[in-house]
Amino acid sequence: MSGLSMGQSIGPPIGGVLYQHLGWKAPFIFCVIVCFVDLILRLFVLENADIRQFHEKRFGLPLGALKPKIVDRELVILDIPGLEDTSCMVLTEAEKDKMSGIDLKPWEVIGALCKSPRGVAAFISVFIFGITTGILEPTLTLRVQEIWHKEPGFVGLIYLAAAAPTFVSGPIIGALSDRFGAEFIILPCTILVLPWLPLMLLSSSLPGFIIFFALFNLLITCAMTPAGPEVSIDSRHVKGLGEIHQFGALQVAFAISTVVGTTVGGQFYDHIDNDWTAVIWFPFGIAVAALPIYFFFVGDRPLAKRIFGKVEKQEDTEEESKGVTAAAEEEKRNLSADLDV
Predict the structure, then answer these.
(1) Which spans are transmembrane here (predicted)?
(2) Is residue 251 part of a domain?
């Protein structure tokens, strides 16, 4: 998730400078160049299936001979003399499930994850991150230009300053989530997001606006960070789901929410009289609506279960203690009766 923050931090200032000095086509040309370099680098990535095909040709074996097979419910790997590195024989969880006859379609993957309240809560976390950042993307630049008369390059620097803390927050939040649980990260961070959105309505101070936006961006990123592990843990109980399925499902949620956010933000700012006010209160309301879901469903032991579970456990202990006391008194009365006899 730190890579996402770095990209979102570097992109706006570069785009602002290119737009300001070279025109509106320059940022698109820059993106095409970056994507082309990324494509070239991806061509050098070798999957295990490609490596197996290379060794099959080298040893004159039929296609698919080196792929492990299931015989009598056991995984059998072909032993080839001269093949020292057998790491290409390792199968991913998705390949194992497919060999076992479990092969989920894309919509079945999302459907399987959405059947679990924990998975839905993780998707909502990513969705809120996408829609809140998306709704500000087309409008924050216009707001800064309208109120403080700043150029696009300066707005890019605002994004850079706001996203800089997220460079280090990802590993820290990840470690805290692993140690204490996602339930202690997602809900508190979402609650802490809420005060900074209304404060961004103030127009008296540009430094204050930048600070409010930076705190909002940091906390909404922290609230979204544990979503990946949450989906990963939840999907372990679903046959046919692999790591790539989990990542792809989160990307779908992020893409849809970003599209919705940018569209809603642009329409609000263009067609509503209180444009910036509507832009701010819309994600605020969505974040508030998600709080009960986080409270009841996020983590191995959601906060609701931790709180109400302790109360129930305490009541059970008191009832058990009363039962033991009553049994002891009954036994004492019986013993006294025996002595009298």
Answers:
(1) 26-45, 119-136, 156-177, 184-202, 208-227, 247-266, 278-297
(2) yes
Query: Cα(29)–Cα(228) distance, rounded to whole angstroms?
Result: 32
What is the CA 105 to chain-centroid distance, rounded? 22
101 in a domain, yes or no? no
> Is the distance from CB of 109 to CB of 241 less than 8 angstroms?
yes
Note whether 147 and 194 are same-domain residues.
yes
Domain contains 76: yes
Q: Is the pTM of this model over 0.70?
A: yes
Q: What is the pLDDT of residues 283-298, one digit of tens each?
A: 999 999 999 999 999 9
Distance between CA 151 and CA 19 in Å, rounded?
A: 10
**112 and 210, same domain (yes or no):** yes
> Side chain identity at 92, as an amino acid letter?
T
Residues 58 and 152 in one domain: no
Task: Report CA-CA distances (Å) from 104 to 67, 84, 242, 250.
Answer: 21, 34, 10, 16
Strands (E), 47-128: 69-71, 74-76
